[in-house]
Amino acid sequence: MPIYFDDSIHPNVLITITGNVDADEYERYHERLLSSMRGAKQSGVKIGIVVDGRNSQPPGAKERRRMAQFLEDHSALLAETVSGQAIVLSNALQRGVLTAILWVRPFPMPHLVCATPAEGLAWVRSLSRSAA
């Protein structure tokens, strides 16, 4: 599976995406993410998410639409249960494009676009964990 969840760094989750991910795999990813967010809501502790996409292919149009729909459908839960999300991309141009997109349509929680998982993990560890 090209999407791997490492939740051994609780309350943070490192999600590594590799290769080309299809719509079904993104659907399973969204279900797993929902499960993590519901668990955070139950425990009253916000999670930090680091998505390492350095070795992934850009998602296709269908997958991008589904991601946008997920964000729209679960915006309130994301804001309530996620302290922040860091997105790791190795290419400076990709980081710049994503940063510009997020200025126009930001996530419902704090976010950072960065170059390394270590940078992303340091950032999410610095965020408040108190439930709203």
Describe this structure in words.
By secondary structure, the chain is of the alpha/beta class. A five-stranded mixed β-sheet has the order 1-2-3-4-5, with helices on both faces. The chain is globular, with a radius of gyration of 14 Å. It starts with a strand and ends in a 7-residue tail after the last helix. The model has no long low-confidence stretch (mean pLDDT 89).
What are the salient characteristics of this protein?
five-stranded mixed beta sheet, alpha/beta, 132 residues, 5 helices, globular, single chain, 25% strand
Task: Catalogue the unreliable spans.
Answer: none
Strand order of the largest sheet: 1-2-3-4-5
β-strand percent reads 25-35%
Overall spatial form: globular
Average pLDDT:
89
Fraction in helix: 40-55%
Termini gap: 34 Å
